[in-house]
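Structure (tokenized):
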């Protein structure tokens, strides 16, 4: 074993606790709590004119305290193991820790034996092997992370001010987030531009000689193949229906074919995010946070990986478990080997799998989210080494007799051997084809059939569906936008910035998001181009592999980008970006044209002659009939009113959703958060309300008392409201102080006279507004 007088650095305290338990005495394990240094959010943190010098600072007071703890622990050791995660971000965390150690105590740093160790699972065996095979810090991975960080900083600090000047203050742009926003915005454009087309299908409801139903779809009519748009009107469909019904029909052919269905590969980062969204309804961020906790507790292998490789020991354990649980016929003759699609995948790394496949999900005592995700990973990993499923696919062709002018077809399949399906079946997206699973009755060729009905069914073509979490991750991966480890943060950033919202598990672009996307596509098209972004990701991967140098890559990007931002700052007018002509005459003044503008609360339609004409088209008053919830109004019930209403969902004039009593204005009760059937366990109020946040997930509270089921989330909400309220109070105090001036001073043409003293109350209010609270100090 290596020198026991050693300090081990990892990212998180949970990971530190698990590892220290495995390593035992002689090893001190401390957490860095993520990055200890980062680029400050200010000008010249990266200096392109100084060979892209990067000026890092210790992230915050917590990071400073962490570094002091590390320096104190180093006094008693002679060996340092940097054991952060094995991706480029983990490599950079280790590098930043080591750079700070050298800066703070160069003499001690010179005497230390410093090793970088990596492992794909937190088990005693894996840790002992890592300690036997240490390496140096990988400069290529560090440079790739520095290049990515510099690019993101330069794009954000250069492009965001353009948005402030040309669109709206407080906006931000990002190298990758802007391209992801374009995906969502362009999908919405396609949905709005979509023109549905009508088409009809015809279905025969036949009956076999034994009286069993046999439905079939029309595939040939009057000797011609039936296409999607063969029948585009009800009249055409009815005429065909009339022509088909009088015929006699018989089974022309019965075709059977055995089909094999193979299991999907084990999870990588992207496929885990997609499948957790499909099957569990997890957001990408929730999936990664839960997977992080499972990894740190030693239950699964590292969750940021592009590799579908499995260790030989793991495969042997899986095959043994499959034989015990399902039987020998479910174990293939040879282990199944999968090949990674990503050219950047490192085969020494593994897919996401349970560290111990024999640890069944219900044996680990996991909390809800961890149990669900571990169960998903466990099932998928088990299935990936199981025998393929065997299905019998049956196709029955039914023809009119005796001319055989009209053909119907019935398809179905029967599972002969479930194979991996006994353990797991992959979820499907919107555009996935469904396999025919219908069970068909036994028939013979030439068998005559009865024809009770021929049905005609109307359809309309559908627009492309809005992205779900799963389909957005799939699109990001297909276009090469970002990397799987960054998908969760990309999606979260778009929501945090208010560019998109998630409703009923679908992404909708907000007005400001669509305007920002349109502006960037029109004026910075090259930099939000899908191919350009993918090529930049490839360049960063090439830096990580040691094939490219990072500074020339930054130089090639920076010069033309900087020139374009300077040119656009001068040439583009804000009115050209934030207004859109409609061609409609203003109904109020009869002279101006109605245009769409971007206002404080989103997009609205108003007269272009403002302020001469102040016409604004109402988007719909709050008093429009609301969507019923079926919940009795708790205030009506509490006051025992004779005409009791129920809560209905409404939209305010500013576009904000709220729930109020249906008897308004007789009862003015309303809540901003979605109501859920109560009663409150503390005060017995008739409802509680539901809140959903990205950090805390779904939680509940009572609108009538202080009850909640997540105190941490409630405290965070209260703290935010306190800051907001404090800001309003400070503004009010300032207003009081301003009004306290004498009439002579208020009307004075110049500032030569000294201002009169403000009243004591106003002065106190102003002082109180400026003075920080004890809690803050």
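Design, position by position:
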């Amino acid at each position: 074993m290596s020198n026991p007088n050693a300090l081990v650095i990892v990212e998180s305290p949970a990971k530190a606790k698990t590892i220290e338990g495995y390593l035992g005495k002689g090893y001190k394990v401390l957490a860095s709590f993520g990055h200890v240094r980062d680029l400050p959010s200010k000008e010249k943190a990266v200096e392109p004119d100084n060979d892209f010098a990067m000026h890092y600072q210790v992230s915050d007071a917590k990071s400073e305290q962490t570094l002091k703890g590390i320096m104190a622990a180093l006094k008693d050791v002679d060996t340092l193991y940097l054991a952060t995660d094995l991706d480029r971000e983990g490599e950079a965390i280790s590098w930043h820790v080591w750079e700070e150690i050298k800066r703070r105590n160069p003499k001690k740093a010179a005497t230390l034996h410093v090793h970088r160790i990596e492992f794909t699972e937190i088990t005693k065996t894996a840790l002992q092997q890592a300690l036997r095979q240490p390496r140096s810090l990988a400069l290529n991975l560090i440079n790739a992370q520095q290049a990515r960080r510099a690019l993101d900083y330069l794009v954000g600090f250069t492009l965001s001010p353009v948005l402030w000047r040309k669109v709206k203050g407080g906006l931000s742009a990002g190298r990758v987030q802007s391209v992801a926003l374009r995906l969502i915005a362009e999908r919405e454009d396609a949905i709005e531009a979509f023109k549905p087309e009508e088409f009809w299908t015809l279905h025969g409801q036949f009956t076999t000689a034994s009286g069993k139903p046999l439905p079939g779809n029309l595939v040939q009519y009057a000797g011609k193949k039936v296409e999607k748009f063969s029948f585009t009107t009800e009249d055409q469909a009815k005429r065909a229906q009339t022509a088909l019904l009088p015929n006699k029909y018989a089974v022309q052919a019965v075709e059977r074919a055995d089909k094999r269905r193979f299991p999907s590969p084990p999870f990588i980062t992207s496929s885990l995010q997609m499948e957790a969204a499909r099957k569990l309804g997890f957001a990408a961020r929730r999936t990664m946070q839960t997977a992080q906790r499972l990894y740190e507790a030693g239950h699964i292998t590292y969750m940021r990986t592009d590799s579908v490789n499995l260790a030989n020991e793991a495969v042997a354990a899986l095959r043994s478990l499959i034989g015990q649980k399902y039987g020998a016929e479910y174990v293939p003759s040879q282990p199944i080997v999968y090949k990674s699609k990503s050219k950047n995948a490192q085969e020494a790394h593994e897919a996401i799998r349970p560290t111990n496949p024999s640890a069944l999900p219900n044996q680990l005592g996991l909390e809800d989210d961890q149990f669900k995700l571990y169960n998903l990973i466990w099932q998928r990993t088990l299935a990936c080494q199981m025998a393929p499923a065997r299905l019998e696919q049956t196709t029955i062709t039914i023809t009119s007799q005796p001319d055989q002018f009209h053909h119907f077809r019935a398809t179905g399949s029967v599972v002969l051997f479930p194979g991996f399906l006994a353990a797991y079946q992959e979820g499907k997206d919107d555009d996935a084809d469904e396999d025919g699973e219908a069970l068909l009755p036994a028939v013979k060729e030439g068998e005559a059939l009865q024809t009770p009905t021929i049905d005609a069914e109307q359809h309309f073509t559908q627009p492309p569906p809005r992205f779900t979490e799963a389909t957005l991750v799939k699109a990001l991966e297909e276009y090469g936008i970002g990397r799987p480890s960054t998908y969760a943060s990309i999606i979260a950033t778009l929501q945090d910035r208010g560019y998109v919202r998630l409703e009923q598990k679908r992404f909708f672009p907000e007005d400001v998001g669509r305007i920002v996307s349109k502006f960037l596509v029109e004026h910075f098209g090259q930099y939000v181009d899908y191919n350009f972004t993918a090529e930049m990701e490839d360049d960063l991967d090439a830096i990580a592999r040691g094939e490219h140098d990072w500074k020339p890559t930054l130089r090639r990007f920076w010069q033309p980008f900087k020139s374009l931002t300077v040119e656009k700052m001068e040439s583009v007018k804000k009115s050209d970006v934030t207004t859109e002509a409609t061609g409609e005459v203003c109904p109020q003044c009869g002279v101006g044209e109605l245009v769409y503008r971007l206002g404080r609360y989103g997009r609205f339609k108003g007269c272009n002659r403002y302020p001469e004409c102040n016409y604004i088209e109402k988007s719909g008053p709050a008093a429009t009939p609301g969507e019923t919830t079926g919940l009795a109004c708790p205030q009506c019930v509490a006051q025992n009113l004779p005409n009791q209403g129920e809560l209905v969902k409404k939209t305010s004039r500013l576009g904000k959703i709220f729930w109020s009593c249906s008897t308004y204005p007789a009862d003015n009760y309303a809540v901003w958060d979605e109501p859920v059937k109560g009663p409150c366990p503390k005060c017995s109020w008739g409802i509680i309300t539901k809140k959903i946040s990205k950090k805390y997930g779904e939680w509940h509270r009572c609108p009538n008392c202080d009850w909640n089921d997540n105190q941490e989330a409630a405290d965070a909400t209260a703290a935010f409201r306190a800051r907001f309220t404090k800001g309003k109070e400070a503004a009010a105090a300032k207003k009081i102080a301003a009004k306290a001036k004498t009439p002579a001073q208020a009307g004075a043409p110049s500032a030569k006279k000294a201002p009169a003293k403000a009243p004591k109350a106003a002065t106190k209010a102003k002082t109180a507004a400026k003075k920080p609270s004890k809690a803050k100090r």
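Reviewer-requested clarification: Residues 620-624, 741-777 have pLDDT under 50 and may be disordered. The first strand starts at residue 6 and ends at 10.
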